[in-house]
Specification:
The protein has five helices and no strands. By secondary structure, it is mainly alpha-helical. It has one domain: Helix Hairpins. Helix 2 packs antiparallel against helix 3 and helix 3 runs antiparallel to helix 4.
Length: 130
């Protein structure tokens, strides 16, 4: 029954598991990036759920001050926004690298890239031996 009371935590754990499985089990680089984004989202959901306190208000300046215990701490929300910016930047960088890999090797399949790269390495070693 604890799963029903902590549904944000349960959802973030399930999302993290889905993202991790996607990241580890797929050979396609685009799917790996999507799995990493799902994991990022699950961490953000978990931190947002831990930063919220029921019954408290957002720390917005109004005409009266209610005391420190009447407001939610804004620092977790600010850190999550920073994390989202970093996650988007890393995603953009990984997608740019994937485009370059596709232009170079003609595929986004990791095993095919490693196989082609291994063949290139063997050819280079063979030519240096001659």
């Amino acid at each position: 029954m604890a799963l029903f009371h902590n549904y944000y935590d349960s959802a973030s754990i399930v999302l993290f598991g889905i993202g991790l499985a996607t990241l580890m089990l797929n050979k396609n680089l685009i799917k790996k990036i999507i799995g990493m984004n799902i994991m990022d989202t699950s961490v953000f959901l978990f931190l947002v759920s831990k930063g919220y306190i029921a019954g408290r208000n957002a720390p917005i300046i109004t005409d009266r001050y209610e005391g420190v215990t009447a407001y939610v701490n804004p620092i977790p929300s600010a850190l999550i926004l920073t994390g989202i910016v970093v996650a988007v930047s890393v995603t953009a960088f990984l997608l740019a690298l994937t485009i370059k890999l596709y232009e170079t090797y003609g595929t986004v399949d990791l095993e095919e890239i490693l196989k082609v790269k291994g063949d290139d390495h063997e050819v280079n070693n063979q030519s240096s031996l001659d």
